[in-house]
Each structure stands twice: as structure tokens, then as C-alpha cells.
Amino acid sequence: xxxxxxxxxxxxxxxxAAGEVVENPASIAKELIENSLDAGAKRIEIAIEGGGSAFxxxxxxxxxxGREDALLSLERHATSKIRTERDLLALSTMGFRGEALAAIxxxxxxxxxxxxxxxxxxxxxxxxxxxxVEPCARNRGTTVSVRDLFFNVPARKKFMKSASANGxxxxxxxxxxxxxxxxxxxxxxxxxxxxxxIDRQERKKRIEGLLGPMSxxxxxxxxxxxxxxxxxxxxxxxxxxxxxxxxxxFSPLISRAVKAGYGTRIPDNAYPSFVLFLEIxxxxxxxxxxxxxxxxxxxxxxxIYRLCEEAVARAFEGPVQPFSRPLAFSEPLPFSLAEESxxxxxxxxxxxxxxxxxxxxxxxxDGYLFxxxxxxxxxDLRLAYARVLYESLKEKQGAAQSLMWPLETEVEExxxxxxxxxxxxxxxxxxxxRLAVDALPALLEPSDFPDFxxxxxxxxxxxDLAASRYAKGTKRVFTADExxxxxxxxxxxxxxxxxxxxxxxxxxxEGEHLKSxxxxx
Length: 521
Ligand code: ADP
Ligand code: MG
What we know:
By secondary structure, the protein is an alpha+beta fold. The chain is built from 17 helices and 22 strands.
């Protein structure tokens, strides 16, 4: 009987192994970036085309390799990072399996240029077979270029995602890896254009620059991290980033521990977003349980779980900080403006306004007035201003204020004077194109008049459009007195609910609004 079993050729072995390490362009980038970091790089430049499967290059300024090492590096199980099994217990590098380069080279057209400072070496391989080895010029460092990924593995190629999905996943991978090494700068070019430029910077700054503001800081023995606000918890785990001894890994255990630490602050089905860095003795963590070194196992699971849960829970202790960004509040409003502000009372009575209703202005936040009157009212001050301005100009009611000096401005046509005067704007023409304004209705600030004029001309002299457009663009900041006066004036308008552009000016804040606001719907 002929022998049935054969030993597979090295190239076939590599290609099979590649299935485990090389999943997609993002996983290739991860391996190559880890190599660059292991080589002590301070700057890593990545470039991709076609989402990384047509072309993917990682260039670093690390220690580089001499000719013999470069040749060996492409062989399977060739590594400079461990020598004996015992070294596995004290890993300080990301790599150790010596598989990545061999695997990547076996499923692509591969080129490496590397130098330790002197003459460089260029190696070319096609589907794992060495095609050229020659000297080349290169500064210290290493460039690995991968073209036509899976060109010789059609079955794998068929299952590749679209270029844009691959590119997006790769870009996210670069950003994520950059979180752990703020002292290294990164850049990513996509189809010839710079897509990411991550400069050296302090760790917290880098994290917030890449992931957005974080609300809490977790600290424990060997543990440091930043936690996103509970209300930003996601329905996916994507926002959960864990580094164990600076290696990006996934750990369901720690994921659960952090969630427990957030406690009842997030719903059952949501995942909190976080970045955690755990430093533990290398011999109490096994990184060798997954070919992509993605998952880890801890020897003291209970201890690690408690460490994480307690650190997160502690981060939330102490005074509550409900807002990640401070709100711009007005100065505190007095309990009853009307009684305590005689000038306001005087102004109001001259306008025929009534202050007798039991109302209480509460606060002004970013141009909105909160008012307590049979419930809570929310008033958009700009829209209120538009309505009041519109009606007062239309009816020529506004008591004109004489200007100390006439305000001069260019106009495009002579016929405007009459129309402006009809709105209570006292003006005259100097020469053909200069308009001199002598008095303005109280609601129009002299300094803002040119803006109003422009809005009016742009709105084809329709006062409703002009008032609405002008008020919307105004940078005016309303003081508490002005805001309250404006509200009283609004109540006297023919239509006090909508601005002249048809937008709702104020609303009663009902229980449902608050409910949906709090629940983020
Ligand atoms: P591992 O990283 O697990 O050792 P790799 O296949 O990724 O295995 O790399 C093999 C070897 O090639 C590494 O141990 C290292 O000595 C060398 N090497 C790879 N990439 C670089 C690089 N960018 N700079 C310097 N040396 C490198
Ligand atoms: Mg490696």
C-alpha cells in the first residue's frame, strides 16, 4: 500500500497559518505596527490604496534589520523576541510567535526595505517565494509593502469586504493602537491623501482627541483608564478598549467587571465605552491563547475582576458631575425682577406692559429663557426678538431713539428712504448713495443697523423675512432684564407664538419632554 500521509511543503503551511493571523487589511496593519513598536519606532507612517488590499505599507524609524535577520524574518517561527519557552512568561514585546511576516508574505506580493543605519536590504517575495534580495539605500528603519492581498488565495479574496469597509476598519485600528503609545506619532494616507495625522502628545489628550471627551478617570493598582459618560453607552462593544501591558486585547471578564462598576447608571443591554490600561506581572497573564493575540487569560480572574470593578465604581463616587461640558448660565436671576428693578418697571409701564402675572424668570441658557409660569416655559429669545421687532417696525410703534451722531451707510438705490421711514427709521439721503440715519426704533441697535439693512435688502424688502433673518443671525446676548422685557413685549404681539418666519417661539415644557430628554430619545 502506498504511503498516504505526506509532510506539507513550507509554503502551504504558511498559507494555512496565514488564515489565522491575516484576516483583513486591519489585522495586517496591526501586526506591522506592533513590529514597528517593538523595533522602538518613534514615527510610523501607514499608506493604503483600495482599502488596503491593493496596497498597504507601514514605514518606521525603528532599529531596522541587517541582511541576515531580514532574510530570517520571513521564515515561520523566526523571531528575535523570545529564545526559550521560559521567555513566554516574561514578554515585554508585542510579537513573539514569529509568524506575522511569514504569513503576510505568503498571501501577497511582499516587499521589505530595512536598514540598521548602514547599507539597507531589499527583499521581494511573491506568495511566500523569495523573488529578490539586494542591497538598497535606506535610513535606519523598516518599510514593509504588501500588494495584491490574497492574489493567490482566490477563496479568501472572495470573502473580502468592500474597500471602504476595509479602509474604515484599518483607520480605526490605527487610532486604537495609537492610544497606547502617545510618544509615537502616526500618519495614515488613504489613496494618496492624508487621512490621519496623530502627533506625539500627552496620553489623556491623545485619548480625548481621538475618542471624544471622557467624563471619569479610573485608578487602581496597576490600572489606569478613562471612562465615557454613562449616557453615551452603546449597544455594541466597539467603544471598549483594553490594553494589557500595552497590548491591545479583548477580555470578556474585564468587560463585565467595568459594566458592573458602572452599576445602575447604564441600562442592562448597553455597553459602556472606556479605555483601560492594565499593567500586571507578565507571568499572571497568558497572551498565547489566540493566534492574533487578541484574547488573554488571567491566572487570578477574581482578583482582576474586583480590581476593575472597584476602580470604575470609585471613579463615579463623589460629587455628581451631570454635564461633561459646563453650561453657559446667565447671572443668577432675582426672585422677582419686577419688584426689584424700578427702571425695568418704569420702562415696562411706558410700553403699557403689565407685570402683575405671577411669573418668575429662572435662567438664561445660550439664548433661551426659562420661565416659570403655570409650568415651565422655554423661550427662544432670538425668535421672540424677531417677532417683536417685526410687529413694532410694521406698525411703526417703536419709540425712536435719536442718535448722537447720524449713522451713515451706503445704499444701492434712492427709493429706500421712504420705505425705511415707514418703519420708523428716521433717515435721509446724502448725495445719491449715502444714507444718513438720525433716529432708530428702540429695538434696533445702531451698531447692528447695517446688518438689519442687509437682511432687509436680501429679503427683497419684505419685513417678515428681514426681521426673521436678522434676528436669527444676531450675536446679541440678552441680559436678564432685556430677556424678561422682551417676553412681556412678545405677549403683547398679535401673534406671540410664532416668529415671522413661522417658527415656534416658546413652548411649555411638559413631563414627556423631560422624560424623553432624560432618556435621550
Ligand atoms: P514576531 O513579531 O512575533 O517576532 P514577526 O513575523 O512579526 O514575528 O517578525 C519577525 C521578526 O522580524 C521580529 O522578531 C523582528 O526581529 C523582525 N522585524 C519585523 N518587523 C520589524 C521592524 N519593523 N523593524 C525591525 N525588525 C522587525
Ligand atoms: Mg510581529
